[in-house]
């Protein structure tokens, strides 16, 4: 599966048309199942290193396609074996705010089997805001939204469903070796998540809820916590 266009919504649900679905762009091909099969970036990819812009001469979309396949195996196919097939022999997965994950193939397989794959709400959706690639890693800036209608061990371990709607910015730093995912470091604002599910009162605290997403996507409102 090829990389999806930047800024597209990746929606996960039931049925072939709802899974990993994005409207094809001008450089996108689509197979008969309704999945986007391949795409190319419509611009020269830029990696920013120490304040300098380095234009890549190789094709960084290959690693993006690898990570897209990895995520599709997690959320669409919900297939642990297929997910692990995209990873190295010694992978590391770390959801940093909760330290959920594993180190080593057995531990990561156990994490995916018991605590991640199949645990996500049916209405979970991922909107990619930006992607940066180089020859060793992919960094995706995303917004993940869902209804908290079940226990989600990776984000809210041990917390009973609240039925509340959640929207949070997420950053995934994905290292790759020899065409496989070597590590995933996943970051989000846990305080914002706790506010949105009603487990943290924001009164008097410098925390925000779903308005983080509006500020990220629309640029408003900003400075809501400033005196």
UniProtKB/TrEMBL annotation:
Please name the InterPro entries in this protein's record.
Answer: Cyclase_SnoaL-like, NTF2-like_dom_sf, SnoaL-like
> Which positions fall inside the SnoaL-like domain?
72-183
Stretches that traverse the bilayer: none
Annotated GO biological processes are:
polyketide metabolic process
Task: List the Pfam families hit by this protein, alphabetically.
Answer: SnoaL_2
What protein name is recorded for this chain? SnoaL-like domain-containing protein
């Amino acid at each position: 599966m090829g990389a999806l266009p930047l800024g597209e919504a990746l929606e996960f649900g039931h049925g072939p048309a709802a899974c990993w679905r994005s409207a094809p762009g001008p450089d996108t091909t689509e197979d008969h199942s309704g999945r986007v099969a391949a795409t190319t970036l419509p611009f020269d990819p830029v990696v920013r290193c120490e304040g300098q812009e380095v234009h890549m001469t190789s094709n960084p979309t290959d690693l993006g396609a690898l990570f897209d396949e990895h995520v599709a195996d997690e959320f669409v196919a919900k297939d642990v074996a297929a997910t692990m097939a995209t990873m190295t022999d010694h992978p590391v997965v770390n959801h940093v705010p909760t330290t959920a994950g594993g180190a080593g193939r057995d531990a990561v397989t156990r994490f995916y089997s018991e605590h991640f794959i199949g645990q996500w709400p049916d209405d979970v959706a991922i909107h990619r805001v930006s992607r940066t690639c180089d020859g060793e890693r992919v960094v995706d800036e995303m917004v993940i939204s869902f209804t908290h209608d079940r226990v989600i061990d990776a984000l809210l371990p041990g917390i009973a469903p609240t039925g509340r709607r959640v929207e949070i910015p997420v950053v995934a730093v994905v290292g790759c070796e020899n065409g496989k995912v070597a590590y995933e470091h996943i970051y989000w604002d846990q305080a914002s998540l706790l506010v949105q599910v009603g487990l943290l009162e924001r009164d008097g605290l410098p925390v925000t809820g779903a308005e983080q997403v509006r500020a990220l996507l629309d640029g408003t409102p900003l400075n809501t916590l400033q005196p």
